[in-house]
Design brief:
Layout lengths: L13 H8 L33 H20 L1 E3 L5 E3 L4 H19 L9 H17 L8 E5 L6 E4 L3 E5 L3 H4 L2 H16 L2 H22 L3 H36 L6 H20 L15 H20 L6 H9 L14
Parallel strand pairs: 3-5
Antiparallel strand pairs: 1-2, 4-5
Length: 344
């Protein structure tokens, strides 16, 4: 996403996991851990049976697995596009964390928030409110819109409907349609409850990795984090991003913005990314499988695939003539070519 702030639970350090394993097995003199089944042929230290060789262990393991499977299935639901995902974070928890993050952002950027009533504030509010109007009946949110006077090319929406747009993004947005592309994308993340999905996935992975470190080896915690990041977290994050792109395209079309302009916005973002890398970091961007976002080129290709549906959506939304609206709203758009300074 363009800059959605994600709330992540800190992962348990490997050292703490290693301390927990001492409840089940001690270290050998050579420093290696004495795991279940290591030691004498009797199955454990001093001839004692290893825990995993007892019936009680398998009863507990089997019962825990069955209970975990039932719990998981009870919290699997479909996303707005029909994707199956696990969510065990309640709406109230999500909103509470959103309020906490909102206060944190206000403390961090309080002195840089553009006053309400200025040209740029009115401009961003007007575009945002049109997109909000599309989803408002389906989202129980207390919408707040803020512009941050900063060169960062960023925007995000917190749970509960708190929208932040950095002024550095506006020259790249270039038009109402470009800004609507960003805002619809970020609002789509909240509409689809992607923050709750990511928090739920992190909780599930943490439980699985701690269990693996306790019953297999402490090093499984570190290796498992790497594996889960590559095989689960990154692909799922990219799935959320693509879903937000698709939903956002439909939202901006339903709000009577031109969805074809989304391609131009992401092409400008791609050009800006390449310019920044060539001037500051002359290394190639990481391959897509190592990224939480689809590559800009993949994102543009996907949007082109979805455009026919988005154009049909706009056509069915009783939108006014595009030329008339462009002419009218161009007079209301602040000049952003010179950056954030000087707006009245």
């Amino acid at each position: 996403m363009v800059g959605l702030r994600q709330i992540r639970q800190p992962a348990a350090p490997a050292a703490a996991a290693a301390m927990r394993t001492r409840l089940f097995g001690n270290q050998r003199p050579d420093g290696r851990y004495w795991r279940f089944g290591d030691g004498q042929s009797g199955g454990g230290r001093g001839g004692r049976r290893a825990v995993w060789q007892t019936k009680g262990f398998w009863y507990v393991a089997g019962g825990s697995t069955a209970a975990g499977t039932v719990y998981y299935q009870a919290h699997v639901e479909e996303s707005p596009t029909g994707r199956r995902r696990f969510i065990n974070v309640s709406h109230k928890t999500e909103e509470r964390m959103g309020r906490q993050s909102y206060q944190q952002v206000l403390r961090e950027y309080g002195g840089q928030i553009v006053p309400q009533g200025t040209a740029v504030d009115r401009y961003v509010r007007r575009v945002a409110q049109r997109v909000i109007g599309v989803v408002q009946s389906e989202m129980d949110a207390d919408w707040e819109i803020h512009v941050i006077d900063s060169p960062e090319r960023n925007a995000f929406v917190l749970p509960g409907g708190k929208i932040f747009v950095f002024s550095g993004l506006l020259p790249i947005a270039e038009s109402d349609d470009g800004l609507a592309t960003v805002l619809a994308h970020e609002i789509a993340h909240q509409y689809a409850r992607h923050p709750a999905e990511q928090m739920s996935r992190q909780t599930l992975l943490t439980v699985l990795l701690i269990a693996a470190s306790l019953f297999v080896d402490p090093s499984a915690l570190d290796l498992g984090r790497i594996t889960s990041t590559l095989l689960l977290e990154l692909p799922n994050s990219r799935a959320c991003e693509s879903e937000a792109d698709r939903l956002g395209l439909m939202f901006m079309a339903a709000a009577c913005y031109d969805p074809r302009q989304a391609v131009g916005f992401w092409e400008r973002m791609l050009a800006e990314e390449q310019r920044a890398k060539s001037s500051s970091f002359p290394t190639a961007s990481p391959p897509q499988f190592l990224s939480t976002h689809p590559s800009s080129r993949s994102r543009i290709d996907n949007i082109r695939t979805w455009l026919p549906d988005a154009i049909d959506k706009r056509a069915s939304s009783a939108c006014p003539d595009q030329l008339l609206t462009d002419s009218f709203f161009s007079a209301l758009r602040p000049r952003v070519a010179n950056g954030p300074m000087g707006w009245a």
